[in-house]
Protein 1
Amino acid sequence: ISYFGFSLMLNLAIPIALATIAQMFVIAGNELDLSIGTFVGFVGCVTATWLKDAPLIGAVILLGSIGVYALLGALIHLRNLPSIVVTLGMSFVWQGLAILVLPKPGGKAPDWLLGLMAFKPPFIPFPIIAALLIGLIVHFGLMRTSYGVILRGSGGNPAALGRAGWSLLKTKIVLFALAGLFGVLSGMALIGITTSADANIGNGYTLLAIA
C-alpha cells in the first residue's frame, strides 16, 4: 500500500484513538461513559463555529466543557450514582447543545487545525506517528508514574486507596477531567479531518470507544 493509501485508510485513527483514551480514563475508575460520542459531536460543532470565528470564546467553552466532565466525576462519587445513568442523561444534554450551536451541517475548521491534521511527514503517515505518540504518552502517564498508579487503583481497589489516605473524590475528578480533555482533542481532530461539522458527527464514537 502506498503512502497515500495508508494515510487515507488511517485518516480517522487519531480522533477514534483520542475518544478511546477518554473512555479508558473513565473505565480506569471503574465507571462507564455513554456520553463521549455526543460530547465529541458537541466539541466538533464548537470547533467549527466559535473556535473559528471567536477563538477566545471557543476556547473558554471547550475549557468549560472539561470542567463539566470533572463535575460529573464529583457528582457520581459524592452521590454514589451509576455512571451509566448519569452519562446517558448527559449524552442528551451534549446532543442538544450541539444542535443549538450548529442546527444544520456546516461551519469550518480553523485554518491552523486544518494545517495540523493535513501534516504529511516523510516516509511514515501522520496518523501512525500521532497514534504512537499519544499511546506512549498516556502509557507513561498511567503505567510509569506514581500518580498513575493511584488513578488506576481508584478503580481496582478503592477501599485500599482510601485507607492509604488518598482522596477518592480527587482521583475521580481527575479521571473525568482527563476524559473530558481527550474528548475535546478527539472532537477537534475530527473536525480538522472533515473540515466542517454536524451535531451528529460523533454519535458513533460511544460504541467505538468502548469496543
Protein 2
Amino acid sequence: MLGTGQKEHLYDLVPTLGHLLSASARARPHKPLVLFGRQAFSYGLVEEMACRIASGLRKGGICPGDRVGLFCINSHWFVAAYFGILKAGACAVPIHLLLSAEEIGFILKDAGCRGLVTYGALEGCLDGISSLVSSIPCRIVVGEGKIPGARSLDDVIAHEAPDPGIPALNQKEDVAVILYTSGTTGVPKGAMLTHRNLLANVDSILATVPFVETDIILTVLPMFHAFAATACILTPIAVGATIVAVPKFTAEEVIAEIERNSATVFLGVPSMFAVLASVPEDRRANLSSLRFCVSGGAALPAEVMERFEKRFGVLIYEGDGPTECSPVTSVNPIGGRRKVCSIGLPLPGVRMRIVDDRGQTLPTGSIGEIVVAGENVMKGYLNRPEETKEAFFGEWFRTGDLGYVDEDGYFFIVDRKKDMIIVNGMNVYPRMVEEVLCRHPAVAEVAVVPEPHKLHGEVPRAVIALKEGCSVGKAEILAFCRQHLGRHEVPRVIEFVPSLPKTPTGKINKRAIARKVSQAYGQ
C-alpha cells in the first residue's frame, strides 16, 4: 500500500484502522500475512476471520465505541481478533499476559469492557475474577479451554457472515485502542489512542524505516504491547509484508524461526538482544537473512549492541517512544548514521524538544525533560482528566524521560525523571551507571536503584546478574566503576543475583527491585 518515502498520508487513504487490513487484503488475498506454528494464514483468510469476528461481536451486543478486552498470545488469532474488534467499530483493550487476575480485573473494570476475546489456554489466569468475567456481556474464547457462557471462536468463524461493513467513525476523535501503562508511578492508566494517532504513527515509521512488501518480520514482542502492535502488525500490513508470530521469547526459538522463515527484520527489546548475543559461539546460528534489527522499549547498552553485531553481522538501530505516542517517536536512520546510545532523530511528523520544569526549551546539550507533539500523541488517559492535564505542557506530551539533543539533532536519554538518584544534592543518572557496568566483561545485566542513606540521602545500589560461567568479586566491580564514574556515581552497594526480574514486555523491572530495597528499610 505504502512504503518508505511515500508522498500520500496513510490516514488519507484509509478512514480507520479497520479499513487498513481490508485494503491490504484486497491487493494480495493469497499472500501469507501470519506464519504461526508452521502454518501460513493469508491476508484474505485473516480478513475473513476478522469480518466474522466483527459480526459475532455485533450479535453479542457490541456497539461502536464499546470496549473489548483482548487477552491472547502472539498468533493469527490475535491479529484477526484485533481487527475484528476494530471492524465492529469498537475499541480494543489489549491485556498483558503476565498480569495477575487482580490486575486484569482492574483493567476490565477501569475500561468498562463489554466484550472479551480470550485465549482458552489462559483461562487459569482469570480464576480469581470469574464473577467479573461472567458479567461481561459478550465473551469469545479462542482455542482450547472453556470460559462459562463464552462462545468459541470456531463457532463464530463457522456461523457468522463475513460482513465487511465498518461503521462510520471520526478518525481524529474515536478511540481505536486503549493501552494500559505499566503503572510504574502507581495505578495503571489507559492511554486512549485514536485511529488517526495510530495511522499517523505508521505513516511516520514508513517515511523512515524501509519496510517493503517482501519483508518477513519476526514478531516475538508481545502483540499486546504498543511497540509490537504498531511496528510489527500495523506497519507490515500497510506495506503487505508477512509476520512470523512467536508466542514466547527464547534464543533457541527465535533463531530457529529466523532460519526457518528467512526473516528479514527483527524488532526487540534490549534484554532479547543481550540473550541472543550470549549464545555460545559453538551453537550454529545463521541470522544472515536479516536486513536490520530495531531495539526499543529501554536503553540498549553499547556493549550488548557490539557483541550482537559482532556475533551475527547484523546492525541494530535504536529507537524510542512511549505508549502515549503510539508509540514510536524517534529512531536512528536505517542505513544511515547511527549514534551509539542515541534514540536517534524524530520521525517525520513528530516534534521533540528538551524543556525545563516550566516547559521552556533548553539549549543544545542541556539536560531536561523530553516532550513530544504530533498527530501520534494520545487523546488522553481514560477517566483521568487530572492526570491527562499533568501529562502535557499545552500540546506537548511530557515523556518523563530526562535527556538532551546534540548539535546534529540526535536525542539521547539520560534516565527516567523519576529514577534519578540524588546523592548529597547531586544528580546521579542510573542509566549512565548501568551503561558503564555493562561494559565489564562478566556482567550480563544490571539495574541501579536508589538506597536510602542517613548521611547522603540516597546512594546508588547496583543489582547485577553475571554471565554464565563468570565469577567476579564486589571489589573488582567497585574498582572498575571508580575508573569510569564520578565519586558520587559509584555504587555504594553491590548485589549479585542469578537473574533480574522482568516486566511482561521483557524489560528489567526496576520498580520491583527498588520496592524490595525500600521494604528492607521499612519504607
